[in-house]
Write a structure and sequence with these properties.
The protein has 17 helices and five strands.
């Protein structure tokens, strides 16, 4: 049974849910509230755009929680006992801190204004990018995107699995760092969907990948003017803007943290994650986790997994430890290492790459 939420958490949630909806409406659809000509006058605080303030709050949250983990040096996934943080987790949270601060904040929001020598607190007006959540389409619209999506990502997926999601991606940075906060840990443990039905819904991510690829293809064809209609592009763009970017990516992806855990978008929505999973699965990715014979079947690994993976089923069967190995062939694992850090018996470890053929040991027990 789920533990009750504290009064403080309940008050927070009463403020959080409406705030998320209002914030994203204002941020992404300011013309619903004021004419375009007045956006900078009304919604630019101290001369800075909503994007700047959004990125500032976002980065502050990520950096605060990740730095706290690094400085305290205690294992955030085993709160019942005080254990030192592992080298892997320290490196992961350092990468989260640095990538968020440098790549997703200083480079896009601070350095350009300083370099151009313009007044810092006087942003020019620019529309918010609403394609970020389906950025797989960049593979069709730029050479850099093509190299990134169809060459770099497959190689990374083969070599290190979906570690990109737990070490670097801006969305993942928020999920990982909020996921180790006091309430975030409870949201991951108690609210991440883990039933068989919840697993089945993961096909939704495949549908969004297909949409993102089609969207990219239509933009590509439009650029070459071979065949396409502006109505089709407009229809796809509008669907993307409202259904994927606003409703799924923003409102559900972040607003539903307290209700469904911190990785709903990453598990059911993100087309890049689905692409990485497919690349990893068909190239027999070398990034895997291996169970040894120390498992006692406590199931803490499954409880802390933010992706809803039944980790225990790879380590324990019929009241006995089994030495299962799993990676992208069987699961959407993002290599966050929470299950490894949470296990009290050190029954799980990352498999050294190139070590052994991929075997799902559970097949032997079916
Ligand atoms: S699943 Fe997608 S959004 Fe989530 S961390 Fe990975 S790349 Fe980022
Ligand atoms: S792997 Fe560790 S946490 Fe998971 S069931 Fe076994 S002993 Fe428990
Ligand atoms: S299986 Fe372990 S490493 Fe993979 S996503 Fe779940 S907790 Fe993270």
């Amino acid at each position: 049974m789920r533990p009750k939420r504290s009064d403080k958490e309940k008050i927070f949630l009463w403020i959080f849910f409406p705030s998320v909806i209002i914030l994203y409406l204002v941020y992404k659809f300011p013309t619903l509230f004021v004419p375009a000509s007045q956006i900078s006058e009304i919604f630019y605080f101290f001369g800075k755009s909503p994007s700047f303030w959004y990125a500032t709050i976002y980065t502050a949250i990520v950096c605060y929680f990740s730095l706290k983990i690094i400085v305290l040096g205690t294992n955030p996934y085993r709160t019942s006992v005080k254990k030192p943080i592992s080298t892997y987790q320290r490196a992961k949270f350092s990468s989260i801190f640095l990538s968020q601060l440098i790549v997703f904040y200083l480079i896009p929001f601070i350095i350009p204004a300083l370099q151009e020598g313009r007044e810092f607190f006087n942003d020019p007006y620019y529309a918010v990018n609403k394609d970020a959540y389906v950025y797989v389409y960049n593979g069709f619209t730029s050479i850099g995107g093509l190299i990134y999506i169809f060459f770099i990502v497959p190689i990374l997926a083969w070599l290190v699995g979906k570690r990109y999601c737990s070490w670097f991606c801006a969305c993942g940075n928020l999920s990982e760092s909020v996921g180790v906060s006091k309430w975030g840990q409870q949201w991951v443990k108690n609210y991440t969907p883990r039933s068989k039905i919840a697993l089945k819904f993961e096909w939704l991510q495949f549908v969004i990948l297909i949409f993102a690829l089609l969207y990219g293809l239509v933009l590509f064809l439009d650029a070459w003017q071979i065949f396409t209609s502006t109505t089709l592009i407009t229809a796809m763009y509008n669907f993307q803007v409202f259904a994927i970017d606003f409703m799924f990516g923003a409102i559900i992806g972040i607003g539903a943290y307290p209700l469904l855990g911190t990785r709903i978008w990453c598990r059911y929505g993100c087309p890049l994650a689905q692409l990485m999973k497919l690349f990893g699965k068909f190239s027999l990715s070398q990034a895997k986790i291996k169970a040894n014979s120390k498992c006692r079947g406590i199931g803490e690994c499954s409880r802390v997994c933010p992706m809803g993976i039944d980790v225990k089923s790879f380590a324990y069967f019929n009241k006995k430890p089994i030495e299962g190995i799993y990676g992208l062939s069987q699961t959407p694992c993002i290599s966050c290492g929470s299950c490894i850090s949470a296990c009290p018996t050190q029954a799980l470890e990352f498999k050294t790459i190139f070590s052994k053929k991929d075997i799902d040991i559970r097949d032997n027990f079916k």
